[in-house]
TrEMBL record:
Catalytic activity annotation: 7,8-dihydroneopterin = 6-hydroxymethyl-7,8-dihydropterin + glycolaldehyde
PANTHER family, sorted: DIHYDRONEOPTERIN ALDOLASE 1-RELATED
Lineage start: Bacteria, Bacillati, Bacillota, Clostridia, Eubacteriales
Gene Ontology CC annotations of this record: cytoplasm
Xref: Gene3D superfamilies: 3.30.1130.10
Protein family according to the UniProt entry: Belongs to the DHNA family.
SMART domains named among the record's database cross-references: FolB
Biological process per Gene Ontology, one example term: folic acid biosynthetic process
Protein name (Swiss-Prot/TrEMBL): 7,8-dihydroneopterin aldolase
Organism domain of life: Bacteria
CDD domains in the record: DHNA_DHNTPE
Stretches assigned to the Dihydroneopterin aldolase/epimerase domain: 5-118
Length: 121
């Protein structure tokens, strides 16, 4: 069984997109993140040193989402996965979902998104 820490519905304003206007004006993005790690040691000890700080994870994701402009949601998701795995050694794997509610596509929709799953090598 794999334990999880879930951060859902994180919202950020960023300057990402294929179109120049998206990169100039910016828009809202949402990120869901599932971290896979063994939570038994933290559950038994009640010690944050044996788990992952939600606040730290949020700041890592925020750094990517509000940082360097990227064209694709796929690139944002990859960068989030790389930063989280490099910064948090207890995380064995993760699922990243990056949502773009205001994608410049004519039509009615809640959001467009990509989802990736990565694990520590």
């Amino acid at each position: 069984m794999t334990d999880k820490i879930i951060l859902a519905g994180m919202e950020f304003f960023g300057f990402h997109g294929v179109f120049e206007e998206e990169r100039r004006l910016g828009q809202k993005f949402q990120v869901d993140l599932v971290l896979y790690l063994d939570l038994a040691p933290a559950g038994c000890s009640d010690n944050i040193e044996q788990s992952v700080s939600y606040a730290e994870v949020f700041e890592l994701v925020k750094g990517v989402m509000t940082g360097k402009s990227l064209n694709l949601l796929e690139a944002l998701a990859e960068e989030i996965s790389k930063v989280v795995l490099a910064s948090l050694p207890l995380v064995e794997g993760l699922k990243v979902v990056v949502k773009k509610p205001g994608a410049p596509i004519p039509g009615n929709f809640e959001y467009m998104a990509v989802e990736i799953n990565r694990k520590r090598i």
